[in-house]
């Protein structure tokens, strides 16, 4: 994310299987990320202590059910942080935190967007951001729509959740956020989701919009 902070966003498509969960945790530790935003955890309240012990550091949860949704934020065990404010969605769609790191306050949102055209979701995200400090805002997650049909999708129907897309772009404008990876790679086709049918469908659904002051931004 920047010279002082590294963030990764990853859709796990379910972490209930211990082998898959431990492999992911080991990989994230090996890359030494400061903060890991995970979507589709399929977690429950009974998992919290066990998963946190496996991770070895702080884990913040918003649970869906054991077959869908759920997000979590993993904080590197050695990181020095202070969580100033926390808000979680009741049904596993987002976690908001104001977190103090290296004398800098970040407003971080880990989100898993609805897969239908639901603009009110991002309208609510935008409104909720106003109640956080927002010194340096980062949205990390699976947005479940494509920003640009030409560059973010291959195969399938030529459609996207247009109302949701419009609302999300309005949010980014209002809070001065940029999808910096796309800004720096305006024509590159890079996909984060693929179907298992033939012919294949490929989409870029995962984004990390952040404030313009960051040096770099990665999915």
UniProtKB/TrEMBL annotation:
Gene Ontology biological-process entries: base-excision repair
Keyword annotations from UniProtKB, A to Z: Hydrolase, Magnesium, Manganese, Metal-binding
InterPro entries: AP_endonuc_1, Endo/exonu/phosph_ase_sf, Endo/exonuclease/phosphatase
EC class (word): hydrolase
Marked site positions, Transition state stabilizer: 144
Gene Ontology MF terms: DNA-(apurinic or apyrimidinic site) endonuclease activity; double-stranded DNA 3'-5' DNA exonuclease activity; metal ion binding; phosphoric diester hydrolase activity
Protein name: exodeoxyribonuclease III
Origin species: Holothuria leucospilota
Higher taxonomy: Eukaryota, Metazoa, Echinodermata, Eleutherozoa, Echinozoa
């Amino acid at each position: 994310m920047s010279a002082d902070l590294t963030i990764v966003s990853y859709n796990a498509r379910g972490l209930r299987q211990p082998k898959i969960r431990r492999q992911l945790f080991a990989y994230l530790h090996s890359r030494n990320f400061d903060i890991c935003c995970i979507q589709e955890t399929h977690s429950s309240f009974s998992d919290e202590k066990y998963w946190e012990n496996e991770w070895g550091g702080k884990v913040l949860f918003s649970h869906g059910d054991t077959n869908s949704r759920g997000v979590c934020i993993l904080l590197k065990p050695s990181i020095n942080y202070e969580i100033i404010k926390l808000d979680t969605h009741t049904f596993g769609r987002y976690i908001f935190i104001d977190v103090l790191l290296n004398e800098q306050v970040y407003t971080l949102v880990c989100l898993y967007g609805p897969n239908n055209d639901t603009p009110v979701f991002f309208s609510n995200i935008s409104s909720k951001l106003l109640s956080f400090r927002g010194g340096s805002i980062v949205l990390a997650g699976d947005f479940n729509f494509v920003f640009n049909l030409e560059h973010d999708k291959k195969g399938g129907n030529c459609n996207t959740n247009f109302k949701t897309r419009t609302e999300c772009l309005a949010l980014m404008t209002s809070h001065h956020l940029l999808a910096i990876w796309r800004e720096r790679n305006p024509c590159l086709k890079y996909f984060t989701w693929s179907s298992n049918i033939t012919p294949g469908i490929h989409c870029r659904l995962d984004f990390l919009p952040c404030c313009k002051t960051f040096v770099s931004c990665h999915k």
